[in-house]
Amino acid sequence: MVNMSQLQSYMKKQLDGDRQRQFVHVSGDSLEAALREASIELSLPIKKIEYEILERGSRRLFGKMVKPFMLLAYPAGGGGETEADQQFNAGIDLDEIGQDRARDGQVFVRLTPEGVMLKVSRPEGGGIHATERMAIEKLTARTDVPVDKALIAKVVRLADGEFVRVGTLDYNPAYDAVLSLEIIDQEMKAYLTALPPGRGGADPAGETIANFLQANGVVEGIRQDVIEAFVQDPVYKEPVLVAEGVAPQNGADARVVLNFESDSSKVQLKETDGRVDFKELNLVQNVVEGQVLAKKLPAERGKPGRTVTGKVLAATNGADTSIQVGKNVRLSDDQQTAYAEINGQVTLLNGKINVEPVYVINGNVNLKTGNVLFLGTVLVKGNVDDGFSVKAAGNIEVMGNVGRSNLDAEGDIIVHQGIAGKTTGTIRSGKNLWSKFIENAVVEAGGVVAVSDGIINSEVSSHKKVICRGKRASIVGGRILASEEIDAKTLGSVAGMETILEVGYDPISKKRADELLERKEELSKDLEETDRNLGTLENLKRQKGTLTQEKIRHLLEEQRRKQQILKEINKLNSEIEEIQQYLGELKTHGRISASGTVYAGVKVHIKDATLEVRSEFKAVTFISEANTVKVTKYQETDDDISITRKS
Fold first, then answer.
1. Nearest Cα residue to 598 out of 476, 484, 513
2. Is 118 found in the same domain as 68?
3. Which helix (H) or strand (E) covers residue 528, if one does?
4. Partner of 619 for a Cys bridge, out of 106, 370, 398, 634, CB 3.0 to 4.6 A?
């Protein structure tokens, strides 16, 4: 026995099947004639058509038809869901998906002095063929003169894209289409408006439109493609943009090209027999007297524009500029080139090119010198004693030791002996930092931290790498953080001192990603609620066949809300993807390596993966796979971490 649920399911399937079919109503003096008509309408052979007889034809005596056959015909097996249904179910506008649709065959009708012209184009990309009925309807809408229906059928079948005369026009030039022109936007646009021809009149030809534009002063920026489209399929009583002027293009401004490199992010630590040779490091961006520091590229001339009436629109030439020079820099006689006047370090400070001599302290930084603040490079030939600070807009180089001190440089910092911070010493380098050792100090570097002997009980943070190279290159105790890599000979100690090592982690980016994901989850819940509301309204429409004005407004509001939610989700997805890509790159490069021994007590953190070392490892590299720390064979860093500078 069939229950109500099964009956409803059956009826729904039947209704869906009906909606997926393309129906046509046709008639004919016989069943065969009606089927031929259906074949033309559906663009299908008769054997692929199913039909239902709505009304049988009847004849009187002598075979005369008094009632034609009436059929409901449709493709065998049904078709797909109609586009209108798809849009209603999706709750989006038709315009948003129209770019990639197939192109249907089209019908074009022109009225000319030679007669009524018909052209039919072929469909593209699986589009639907134009039908004879479409052609007749368009002809009827344009004219009531007699046409050759047999010839029309032939033109439709061929669909060769050529105009064919299908009717004779009793031509009267007095009733031709009337053209008018409007020039607006300071003569930058010309709109053509045409009134349809009267009985016996003709559509405007391309030559007619061209002559009309010229007679009205439109001689520039004529859109030939628009005119050709208008001739093919005239648009009446609507303004059409037929000409558009060319806006002037202002010239590019003059600019200054620097001939020196101030970026010291390319770093290499050279070692021989386990010893780091700091003598080969060139901390200063050196220049010599007479060296070219910058050149000026001249401004470009602007390109004038034109209005549709041919008037010239002047363009602005690029603005000039000059090379701004400061201390120890001179300009050439033509002001186009800057040269160094002395040997020293070139800097760009507040837009001015300077050559700074290195500030040399021949002894220690102590009570005799006081704290040091210099807008250039500082060279300390002795030590930096406890309690003193050295701050430089350039680089800092210390030949001796750094104690419980404060070093702060916008550029690089190099300490030939070592840093003994005594728990309160802080070192901040805007770029790279080199030292023989780091002990009980807080160190932060925007680039690479390179150490020859080791790092002990210190907090070291690098936005790139922490590299320990040398016979005693070890990291013992403290917390070391690097975005990309940590590499040393020994990690931890025999005594099991806690040593925390972290790589591949950017807390700021991760926090932002978490916030975006949380917002996306909220929007997803809102989207689910909106879809439920739309579903309720759609079911109500199916049941009642129509909706009240209030319900229609509610439906439109929900559709708009859905589009807004989808737009914001897409925007969030784009930013999330960008952050995840960045974090993913950190993850692929994030690794911790030891060429010698890794002792128990070392805690390894590679992004979200964690490993607490409980037994010794020899010559290993820790990487992250599937959120798990994996132990692999030691991989020596393959990056070039040497300083390379122009001199």
1. 476
2. no
3. helix 507-544
4. 634
Number of separate domains in the chain: 5
Residues 387-404: tens digit of each pLDDT: 999 988 789 999 999 999
pLDDT tens for 297-313 read 999 999 999 999 999 99
**Mean pLDDT, residues 273-280:** 42
Does residue 6 have a pLDDT over 80?
A: no
Q: Are residues 270 and 332 in the same domain?
A: yes
Per-residue pLDDT band at 413 (split at 50, 70, 90): very high
Q: Residue 296 has which token pair?
A: 């000026």
Is 506 part of a structural domain of the chain?
A: no
Least Cα distance to 646 among 431, 296, 346 occurs for 346
Is 644 inside any structural domain?
A: no
Residue 636 CB neighbour total at 10 angstroms: 11
Instruction: Give how far Cα 73 sits from Cα of 20, 43, 136, Å.
Output: 14, 12, 20
Final residue in a domain of this structure, among 573, 592, 618: 573
Give the DSSP letter of residue 482. Answer: E
Query: Is 466 part of a structural domain of the chain?
Result: no
Contact 353, 296 (CB under 8 A): no
> How do residues 118-151 score in pLDDT, each as one tens digit?
999 998 877 888 899 999 999 999 999 999 988 9
Structural domain span for residue 564: 515-573
Q: How confident is the model at residue 74 (pLDDT cuts 50, 70, 90)?
A: confident
Do 192 and 227 share a structural domain? yes
Q: Are residues 259 and 350 in the same domain?
A: yes
Structure tokens at 582: 């960045």
**Strand intervals (E) in 143-188:** 164-167, 178-184
Identify the domain boundary among 34, 56, 75: 75
301 phi and psi, to 5 degrees?
Answer: -80, 145
Amino acid at 515: E
Q: Which residues contact 19 (CB under 8 A, 6 or more apart)?
A: 81, 82, 85
CA distance 178 to 196: 7
Q: Which amino acid is at 578?
A: E
- Express each pLDDT in 567-609 by its tens digit: 999 999 999 988 888 777 765 568 999 999 999 999 999 888 8
Name beta bridge partners: 467.
Answer: 450, 487
Ramachandran bin of 544, using left for φ above 0, alpha for ψ from -120 to 50, beta for the remaining angles? alpha
User: 71 and 133 in one domain?
Assistant: no
